[in-house]
Write the structure tokens for this entry.
Amino acid sequence: MKYNPIATSLLLSLSVLLSSSCSRGSSKKQETPPVSLTGPSPSAPTPSPSEGGAIDYSDPGKWLCLPGREDSCSAVPRTSELLPDGTFAAIVPSPSPDDSVDCFYVHPTSDLSVKAGNSENFEYLEPDQQLAQAQAAPFRSACRIYAPLYHQITIGTYALNEEERKPFLDIAANDVRKAFDYYMANYNQGRKIVLIGHSQGSELLSIIMKERFDQVPALRSQLLLAILPGFAVHVPVDAPVGATFKNIPACTMAGEVGCVVSFLSYKSGTVYLGDGSITLLEREEQLCVNPATLDDPALTIEERRTAKATLSGTLLPPAAWISDSIRNEAAPTPFVLTRGTYNAACAGGLDPRNRFLSIEENLPDTDRRHGLVLMDSEALTGVTGLHVLDMQFPMAELVALVRARR
């Protein structure tokens, strides 16, 4: 039985986070309200019979995204580039999206109810659609996108300890398991697979990876890449494989396939105290793979672990989608791309095994893009750090990693 102090503090941030999720690390200080650590509360909720009712994944309406129709993932988001002088340049989307590879995407927490449980909402999907458009649709130039709906656990569920939370997580995982199995039986047709998640989505995909890919060599041979930001994946200190996954390694080499990219992002200078959701065992470290250094053939494996690199394309959604995190710009398109604005490097916390992706702005004050992301806002300096923008900072790099492996 474990208590997750990070998740308890998350509940204090609901007023400034639209789509933040869970299982996060700490920022400069790890301050949480006092909560009993002695065991489950007598009033801890349990799933009701109606929670987690079976989802029929043969119904296209139970998929957030499916190829061959108009939905949140059917096209790369309309985007313009913000230039140093404050003007915008049009970006022409790729004329021929690639259909030779599948991306299976699981969205993060969108149900911000403080009541613990599994979301039963499959009608009001705007938050899920926004997440898919920001996190999954940019990959449309590199793959076909499949994204199931599921009985996600609410953000309030993360205030429970692990024992209390597990029945609800099991319901969510069972949905994603069934969706993945249906996808493999009816949609995949032997194509290579990229797994993409964020936060709760990454946690659920890690379960699927342990149960399906880790145990089945044939399925591992179909795995191009697993992109699992916003959730703590662990590896041995001196080896790329082991700990969270027994047979699936962390990505360490340029062009490597069948491996995992994972990171949690914080502003440079953060005194990171580690993720509170999973115990870091002796001789383990929290995985940080820098998307900006991974495919640089000029770097050694150690340099890819530690080198700082400039991000080639940060993709930002409308400011209204993520409260107090992005400066509102009068852009001609919903999404804004900025190039060379931020640097990224994997760094260690007070315990160097607690590794995270350190992000810093790379601009002079005279550049009109300066301050575009509100790095010092309450929303981005609390326990969740830059969580809501985990995927957005290195989006160009993440898409390039997929394209390079097709």
In short: The first strand starts at residue 63 and ends at 65. Confidence is low (pLDDT under 50) at residues 1-42.
